[in-house]
Design a protein that fits this description.
Two copies of one chain form a homodimer.
Chain A (H helix, E strand, L loop, with lengths): L1 H19 L6 H8 L3 H7 L3 H25 L4 H17 L6 H7 L6 H22 L7 H25 L2 H13 L5
The structure holds a DNA duplex.
Chain lengths: 186, 186
DNA sequence: CAACGGCTATCTGTCGTCAGGTAGATAAAA
DNA sequence: TTTTATCTACCTGACGACAGATAGCCGTTG
């Protein structure tokens, strides 16, 4: 099946990018992971930039759905936030990987523009969701919620970056706990 | 002079790594920037890893001295913190560059071990300094200050990462302001 | 037959690295 | 004072590995 191989390419590529970054992603290694030849990847993705953009787009769509699902379930603010921060912890637990958007964000200056745009999209999606969660508490403070959402997103990305740097998930957990103690995160 | 060329190599390399990352640093491009041949860089730095480690070490030493100087001047907590966050803002203002340790931290999984170690050192140095600043307020709460220091460091790195991703310093400034409003940063 | 999903083979370019050479300065030896 | 030796600060040129990309072939499936 077409979708099958394409999916396997994207899945393997995502894991590599979250581990080694966009620059660390090579068609040859990727092909080995999937079990095909590197030239075959070009059948699905004409260029590396196209693959990168597709990766980021899919990542946003996936977590967009996951987060949306939480709201649909009618979870309260604290539970939403706890699950949110757990997603990033799980990523670290999977071989010290970084959020795809965090990794690509750092590499921003060497990314093709099509990839850059998708990475920004992920951040905006996160901020929008966070703002909606915060709105459960302060429905009438729209602007404040948006600022707070952005700060939370940045702080969580930072916590993941530092924990990734030290290859130690407990660093992430401790920092998140401190954010909560400071009421940055509800 | 020897020190002169070596310094110019390190300075150019630092700027490139903060822009494009360790993976984006090539001996040939670096040589062009400095005005020598790529093989000559090996005269000063046997391997790329050695150069990377020297870069990070120097970066830590430089900012360690800058921060130490603030304490010597007897500045108050708010002024120290304001100057601290301004350093990262200035880095962004210089062609959307990232803190060297933030960039290398993201690339952690593909760095030579010698470089990894130096990057961690930078973070520890920052946390120690922040904890000392916080101790001006709460001299008897050592452990709390250390946790708070780490959270501040992570949050600032995160703010810089997100602003870097969007190539917009005002995003950094806004997030830092929100941290302050939350009393995460004094 | 024709489209699909791969393949082989190859191109061009760049990477870090290294062996070996050289011009000039310094210094010790004759 | 001249010769010889060593060191500094580079350079030339090349190595093998690997990068993304492309042209064209071929068996399978509908």
């Amino acid at each position: 099946m077409t979708a099958d191989t394409k999916d396997r390419i994207m899945e393997a590529a995502r894991l590599t990018v979250q581990d080694l970054g966009y620059g660390g992603l090579s068609f040859r290694e990727l092909a080995k992971d999937v079990g095909i030849k590197s030239a075959s990847i070009h059948y699905y993705f004409a260029t590396k930039g196209e693959l990168g953009a597709a990766l980021a787009n899919r990542y946003t769509a996936h977590y967009g759905a996951v987060l949306e699902d939480m709201l649909t379930q009618g979870l309260d603010v604290e539970t939403c936030m706890a699950r949110y921060t757990e997603v990033f912890a799980d990523t670290l637990r999977a071989d010290n990987r970084l959020c795809l958007a965090g990794m690509l964000g750092a590499e921003r200056n060497q990314l093709p523009e099509e990839v850059q745009a998708e990475v920004v999209e992920y951040g905006i999606m996160n901020e929008r969701w966070l703002a909606r969660v915060l709105a459960m508490r302060n429905p009438d403070r729209h602007e404040e919620n948006e600022r707070q959402a952005r700060a939370i997103y940045a702080a969580v990305q930072g916590a993941q970056l530092i924990a990734h740097t030290r290859n130690d998930v407990s660093v992430y957990e401790e920092i998140i706990a401190t954010y909560r103690a400071n009421h940055l995160i509800p």
